[in-house]
Amino acid sequence: METAMTRLTVELGARSYPILIGEGLLDELGAHVAPLLKRPRTMIVTDTHVADAYLAKVGAALGAEGISFSSLVLPAGEATKSWEGLARLTEWLIGEGVERSDHVIALGGGVIGDLVGFACSIVKRGCAFIQVPTTLLAQVDSSVGGKTAINVPAGKNLIGAFHQPALVVIDPATLTTLPRRELGAGYAEVVKYGLIDDADFFAWCEANGAALLAGDAAARAYAIAHSVAAKARIVAADERETQDIRALLNLGHGLCSAADAERVRAHLASVDLPHSLASAGINAGGAALAAHMAHDKKVRGGKLPLILTRGIGQSFVTDEYGLDSVADFLDAQAG
Ligand SMILES: NC(=O)c1ccc[n+]([C@@H]2O[C@H](COP(=O)([O-])OP(=O)(O)OC[C@H]3O[C@@H](n4cnc5c(N)ncnc54)[C@H](O)[C@@H]3O)[C@@H](O)[C@H]2O)c1
User: Which ligand 1 atom minimizes the distance to the CA of 77?
Assistant: First the structure.
């Protein structure tokens, strides 16, 4: 039986690609991947946790369409997004005889997606890849848009490239095995889309967020499709973050009416997400935090663009506040 599926497109001219969303889609992965392949062979890259839960299922789905595959299972965790992880993956791909027309499958969260995307942007000067995100964060954010990167000692995501996937396949059923903490991290990204420019969606989150986090499949499917559609629109309008549109996705904290700020705090607190510096486990002073922010790769001409919001659904980008104001603001929040 075919899965009920939502199909969205990231409109990027010749580099446009579909995003398929549906419960149970992992079982049909082979059917969606087969039309892209020049030879019936692929390489799957995943991590230890995801391999335990889903590698056999994905392998069976590919096998059902006559697609052979090899797989590389990397250690789970952020440390895999590193020079060492990149070296191991690129050398494995070359050892497997990857061809430029092959499609490598990234099966996992944002760590696997970012690492595989970057490896595929450089191996043999670029091969194609398919995102099969299995965390809520990767499903609503990192798998779409083509930002790929690894972390280096100087900072997170400092070495990377824009490399769009050829296809994104999202099966919300994978969230049933995701630890609650990881679900919460993804849900914070969902709420962000409401804060950016969609007050109605924020209200939807207030009404349905708890059910989503408790496992309501319809709420998950709706939130994922709505979030991905927002991300796809933003990426299509500003693929490389050269305008301020895509920068809105970096929204971190707000500057809005006390009532709206309280509404956001109350919603985040109600679903056990950090809603203050203290609840995020941060106890450094404003000056120390601002000094850290000065190293952000988004600093332009010595100024860090801030994504602020005048109210729910009304965010904007500005560089009119210096880091000293940021330090004062953070101290005021902590006080
Ligand atoms: N490229 C982008 O646009 C973009 C956007 C946001 C974040 N990111 C990056 O994403 C990364 C974080 O991604 P993440 O939060 O998905 O982390 P992650 O990939 O480390 O996954 C979190 C944990 O969940 C496990 N896991 C994944 N899917 C699972 C499942 N279905 N069931 C059980 N366990 C599962 C993983 O093994 C890992 O232990 C960061 O490196 C961040 O920089 C990239």
Answer: 20
Q: Which residue, by CA, sits nearest to atom 44 of ligand 1?
A: 142
- DSSP strand pairing (41-47 vs 128-133): unpaired
| Best mutation site among 81, 111, 176, 297 for ligand 1 pocket (most ligand atoms within 8 Å of CB) | 111
Among 182, 169, 159, 141, which residue's Cα sits nearest to residue 90? 159
Residue type, 41: R
Spatial neighbors of 84 by CB under 8 A, at least 6 apart, are none
In angstroms, what is the span from residue 5 Cα to ligand 1's centroid?
A: 23
Query: What predicted TM-score, i.e. pTM, was given to this entire model?
Result: 0.91
Ligand 1 environment, Cβ below 6 A: 47, 49-50, 53, 76-78, 81, 108-112, 114, 134-135, 137-138, 141-142, 145, 147, 156-157, 174, 177-178, 182, 185
Nearest CA to ligand 1 atom 34: 178
pLDDT by residue for the chain (335 residues), tens only, comes to 556 899 999 999 999 999 999 999 999 999 999 999 999 999 999 999 999 999 999 999 999 999 999 999 999 999 999 999 999 999 999 999 999 999 999 999 999 999 999 999 999 999 999 999 999 999 999 999 999 999 999 889 999 999 999 999 999 999 999 999 999 999 999 999 999 989 999 999 999 999 999 999 999 999 999 999 999 999 999 888 887 666 666 665 476 788 888 999 999 999 999 988 888 888 888 889 888 888 887 777 767 888 888 889 999 888 887 888 888 888 877 65
CA distance 201 to 65: 39
Residue 152 sits at φ, ψ, to 5 deg, of: -130, 170
For residues 127 and 100, the answer to whether their CB atoms sit within 8 Å is yes
Query: Of all protein residues, whose CA lies closest to atom 19 belonging to ligand 1?
Result: 109
